[in-house]
Amino acid sequence: MSREEKLVSDPISSTRMVGRVLVVESDNPPVNALGHAVRKGLHDAAKAAESPDVDAVVIACKGRTFHAGADIREFGKPPQAPGLGEVIDAFEALQKPVVAAIHGTALGGGLEVALGCDYRVAAPSAKIGLPEVKLGLLPGAGGTQRLPRLIGAVAALGPIVTGEPIPAKKAKEMGAIDEIIEGDLVEGAVAFARKLVADKAPLRPLSKMDAPKTDMAAFDEAAAKLLRRSRGLKAPSVNAQAVKNAVTLPFAEGMKKEREYFLDLVSGEESKAQRHAFFAEREAAKVPGVTKDVKARPINKMAVLGAGTMGGGITMSFASAGIPVTIIDLNPEALDRGMKIIEKNYRATQARGGLTEAQVDKALANITPSSNFDDVADADMVIEAVFENMDLKKKIFKDLDAKCKPGCVLASNTSTLDVDEIAAVTSRPQDVLGMHFFSPANVMRLLEIVRGDKTAPDVLKTAMEVGKKGGKVPVVVGVCYGFVGNRMLHARGAQVRKLLLEGASPVEVDGALTKFGMAMGPLQMSDMAGLDVGWRIRQETGAKDPVGDALHEMGRHGQKTKAGYYLYEEGSRTPIPDPEVDALIAKVAKEQGIKRREIDEKEVFERLMFSMINEAAKILDEGIALRPSDIDVIYLYGYGFPMGKGGPMFYADSVTPAYIADRLNIYADNTGDEELRPCPYLARLAEQGTTFAADAAAGSKAA
Ligand code: 3H9
């Protein structure tokens, strides 16, 4: 490097000459989001790059990542020039090679900046992607028009419609990255740029390139396949249409359409809800008492107790993340069965293309089956996933206390039980907590972390970090029956049973929620889980469900017996309404002296949804959940709540607590069901005309 000279330097953007190459670097922690100051810095740098002293330009970032996108916090606020499109155009218009040097994650607007460059180089660990669809948006600074021109429209469809990132190596194979640079990235990028100058390599402004030749039938087929998984959201199909425009319209027109689509989506309810979900997920990581100074304990080895469905799924989550796991079941047959299911599940994922053979082999190599309880001795964390029974769990935790090494984190995967009572049987309650996974645990992303009275902050942090490593979204909750998710579900379950007896059919009950966008209705869910499961719990708890009991006695145990609340054809999970069930419900109602009536769709939906929200209000009032947005995260990632609705509390705020309280009072009056009466906290919000979010922000219920 002959000459290195700082030209512009402010805390966010700097430019320096390395010989005759202008290196532009942004530094806007944590993720170099392209907020106004960053865009301005880049725009100024593009102007500086016009100087005849500059032969080539390298765009890079300091800190942990290349630009990870537009600054999402700016959406919905008045735009400030220069816009991202202007910045990209300014670099693309330069009559000298511009190279993006990518490390970390070049996402959204970040990748769009890189697509405005002539060439892209990347660190081996880098990823690129256009995840706007996950925020209910589409790339709004040319991504939908430039990426198809670079790698082809069919290849661009997947990353744009699903928003999934692409690792650097794959991106290079696809033609999106020109070179992978080992060692110092900026130095490598400068050398790459110098070579371009020396070789008189052509400039490659994507906006000037012809649209790639595309087999439109193959394109439509690929789009239809991807859109099948879009669950009624608007953004995925808009993204697909924008990509199609890239090959059917001239660049300028495709860009104009992209802008229109972006403005429409960004002001819509779905995107607002999805952006809320994005920040809610990050907010959930902030837990009082678990400050940055608290250090997580190292987890180099884990043990999972119980090789049933939950134990197997939990084992897979961590083995896939590279943590050695010993799965222990004292019954060798159950252990063998569990291991076979684990292998079968992995191979099925491999067959679907979700994992490579090498990845599956590596994950399986991380799992050690054992029938010897003593094998917990060298684990840094033990997760107990045995049958939901307090006496059994207490016995196990006593044994764990005796066998585990000091400092080992002791977690129970209980879905309802009192974690403090479990912790109390050990001599180290500070090391005990709940880690409530959701079935299938290798797939579902939610992890409720149950903080006991005595759980130490570093134990909590350890569980959150290891959970994140295992691909989960951890949410910390307090101790109560059913914690947050299941407790709300129980409140809804009571209304399901009452609505059936009062006159609603299973189809009407389920339909009210699936029409709203829930993945499944409550009765379909019972059929899937097995009606014997609920029956067994009722035997223990004494809870009442005469219809559920009658179905169980008839041998209708749900999907596994091809009959439950619905009928199922061989090999199909599609529920078929059964008049026999309608007759059974009518009979039980008669025996109970309940006069049945027509119940309109609105009442069915509101009693189901608002009873959950009322329970959530109690949960917040008791401090079991730290903030309303945590409840949203729980329902979005663990209970199939529609992403486009932002979670139950976001939804509650959109219809207003005042409306909900009003309706609940009407239903309580009409049915005499006092469980429907708004709880004091909900009633207060209604009276004050405020929302859950505003009240939390004001600090009255916030953590
Ligand atoms: C876009 O680009 C639109 C354009 O096409 C068109 C424009 C015209 N903005 O996730 P982390 C914050 S749309 C603002 O915990 P990680 C985040 O809230 C955007 N803030 O870290 C958190 O703050 P806090 C397309 C953002 O290492 C902190 O950064 N891009 C943004 O686990 C750390 O985040 C995306 O959708 C943002 N864009 O993961 C990418 N991104 O500490 C979104 C992050 O106060 N981002 N923050 O809670 C991600 O996927 C992850 O953050 C990333 C890092 C993978 C980058």
UniProtKB/TrEMBL annotation:
A Pfam family it matches: ECH_1
Keyword Lyase: yes
Pathway(s) where this gene product acts: Lipid metabolism; fatty acid beta-oxidation
Domain 3-hydroxyacyl-CoA dehydrogenase NAD binding: 301-478
UniProt-annotated location(s): Peroxisome
SUPFAM superfamilies: 6-phosphogluconate dehydrogenase C-terminal domain-like (SSF48179), ClpP/crotonase (SSF52096), NAD(P)-binding Rossmann-fold domains (SSF51735)
Claim: DNA damage is one of the keywords in the record: no
Organism superkingdom: Bacteria
Keywords, sorted A to Z: Fatty acid metabolism, Isomerase, Lipid degradation, Lipid metabolism, Lyase, Multifunctional enzyme, NAD, Oxidoreductase, Peroxisome
Name of this chain's protein: Short chain enoyl-CoA hydratase /3-hydroxyacyl-CoA dehydrogenase
Species annotation: Albimonas pacifica
